[in-house]
Each structure stands twice: as structure tokens, then as C-alpha cells.
Recover the amino acids of this structure.
């Protein structure tokens, strides 16, 4: 009985490391799932060459902007992460949506990474967001002053 108790209470170093890895991975998974709480109507599509999607009503663009964009662009879109860039506040929603999609897809046609050196940062920031989320963000930014 004593040997069983010692095995249960005596954790080895490798076991502790594995447990820490599991806890960290679980925490990361939980945090990423919290970031994806916005709902998207997948039946509605967004054409990058047209105006902003109607499905933006289900996504809170302001909240999404605050979580994903405000750290570099400021609470009201007034900051510029790099010298020479213009603030994004009050930009045209359609043009901005096309540019964000171009960053996500690394599409040179809209000057997303041909003009600025921030393409790696923006690609990392946008790789996982849907067209509907981009439309909601762009609509929100276009209303900022």
C-alpha cells in the first residue's frame, strides 16, 4: 500500500513538464476560441470588388476592431504603425475591405504588400479572419473620426 501511495504522490520531472505543456496548450486553445466568438453567416458571400457585405449585422465590427486592430491602429484608427502611412480612420469601407483581404491573401493587386513593409504583421493579423469579419471591421473603421 505504501508503494502505491508513493507512486501517486511522487511526480517525476518529465511528467510535470508534460502536464505544464498540456495546461499551456489548453489555455491557448481556450483563448483562441474566445477570439472567434463572432458569428458569421456563411451563406452570404463578400465580393472583394463590390461594396461591403450585408452579413456584417451579425458581427460586431467595433468589438472585433478593438480586439484585433486597435493595438497598432489606435482606439479610433488614428495611429499609424509605420512612418509614411496614413491613419485608417474614415477610409472607404469597400477599399479598406479589399486591402485587408489583400493582406490576408497576400495579393499584390491592391498594393497590400508592395507599398508597405508591414505585410508580414498584417498577414499574421488577418490570416484567420473571414470575409464577413473583414467587412464588419471595414464598416466600423469607415465610421471612425
Amino acid at each position: 500500500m505504501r508503494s502505491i501511495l508513493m507512486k501517486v504522490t511522487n511526480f517525476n520531472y518529465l511528467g510535470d513538464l508534460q502536464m505544464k505543456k498540456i495546461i499551456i496548450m489548453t489555455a491557448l486553445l481556450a483563448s483562441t476560441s474566445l477570439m472567434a466568438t463572432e458569428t458569421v453567416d456563411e451563406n452570404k458571400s463578400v465580393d472583394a470588388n463590390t461594396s461591403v457585405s450585408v452579413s456584417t449585422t451579425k458581427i460586431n465590427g467595433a468589438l472585433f476592431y478593438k480586439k484585433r486592430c486597435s493595438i497598432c491602429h489606435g482606439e479610433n484608427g488614428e495611429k499609424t504603425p509605420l512612418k509614411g502611412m496614413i491613419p485608417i480612420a474614415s477610409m472607404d469601407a469597400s477599399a479598406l475591405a479589399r486591402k485587408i483581404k489583400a493582406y490576408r491573401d497576400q495579393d499584390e493587386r491592391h498594393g497590400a504588400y508592395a507599398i508597405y513593409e508591414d505585410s508580414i504583421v498584417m498577414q499574421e493579423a488577418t490570416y484567420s479572419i473571414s470575409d464577413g469579419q473583414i467587412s464588419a471591421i471595414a464598416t466600423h473603421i469607415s465610421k471612425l473620426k
Observations:
- The chain has two domains: 2-35, 54-143.
- Residues 4-9, 37-57 have pLDDT under 50 and may be disordered.
